[in-house]
Amino acid sequence: MTNEFQLAGYLAWKEIWRNKGRFFLVSLVIALITLLVLFIAALGEGLGNGNREYLSKLDSELIVFQENADFVIQSSRLSPSKVNAIRRVDGVAQAGSFAYASAAIVVTGEAEPVKIALIGLEANEPGTPTAVGGRPFRRNLADEVIIDSNTAYRSKLNVGDTLVLRTSQAEKEKTYDLTVVGIAEGQQLGLQPTIFVPIQTWEEVRPKSSAEIGNNSPTPNVAIIKIMDGFTAEQVRANLLAEIEKIEAGTLQEVIEALPGYTAQQSTLNTQGAFTLIIGILVIGGFFQIQVLQKVGQIGVLKAIGTTTPTVAIASIIQIVVITTIGVFIGALLTFLLSLGFPPSIPIVFNGFTSLIAIIALMAIGPLGGLVSIQYAIRIEPLKALGLSS
Fold this sequence. Notes:
By secondary structure, the chain is an alpha+beta fold. The protein has 2 domains: 173 residues, no CATH class; 178 residues, no CATH class. It is built from 12 helices and 10 strands. Strands 2-3-8-5-7-6 form a 6-stranded mixed β-barrel. A hairpin with a 2-residue loop joins strand 6 and strand 7. Helix 1 crosses helix 10, helix 2 packs across helix 10 and helix 10 runs antiparallel to helix 11. The radius of gyration is 30 Å and the shape is elongated. The two termini are 34 Å apart. The relative contact order is 0.19.
């Protein structure tokens, strides 16, 4: 068996070396397929992460919505009294109001304002992001703001700087000066840079219609729930639905999956990645099938002089694995080099686990694509290959 592997390795290497230009071109094709697959995986991770980033980092277990909101934050409204009632439900440790609006910030040196998600939260309640730089806001009415790292990158703002917020107030544009007191890790929601303000400040600065001017009572979209120790999410959800009318409660995963377009987006990108792998299998299979057809006579001679069928099969497998490995390595290297030039504003995230799965799948397409050519090679009869048999 050892001699068979040595002979098979020698035969495989000699053929690769004698036709290195041809095999290198195939490796480049595999490299391009690798590049495409890894970027599709990174784009899927980046888009998904940009949609769910804030929700996935919440230190809570349930989110309470208005009835029939279908777990869509923008479709829900809860009165402050209902949020207070939620706090009194058995099993609820804390409940924080969450209010959402769209706005823009004026960036020095930029012609166009940066569109952001404006989120209002209660100080010291669930939902408030952890500031990795600076501090969280301490009061519900203060001209303070926490910005996420994406906003900091786009606006070049740091702790202590003044953020200029622009919103529409009764069909007129108005600006507000807020002091940046903290910077949080990436906290995007809906692929938008995000800023967090105290809930009363949010009510003051959020976009309003003429009818809403003068309203000082913020109406949150949802309530973010932290559960007491000893209770499960299902127990607390049942308690909430039993005690409070016209609400629905979802886990973080249920809310993430209900994000507009999230599931369809991920399914589309996963389908693209799968089709790319299938194309890779067909390309590699087609190349090695042509290779075998071009060397039928050579394989016939090898078998005629005593080379065993397993040796021929192993030589073909070694060729396929070597060429695939070289192609995947080149593609992964190109992907890494290209990724260094992408700014954080582009939603491409190379997750280590996702990239590893993609690379393993790419390594598997070589042997899968070469199965037909290997089967054809081992079935070649020496006499027929040499034209000595009818």
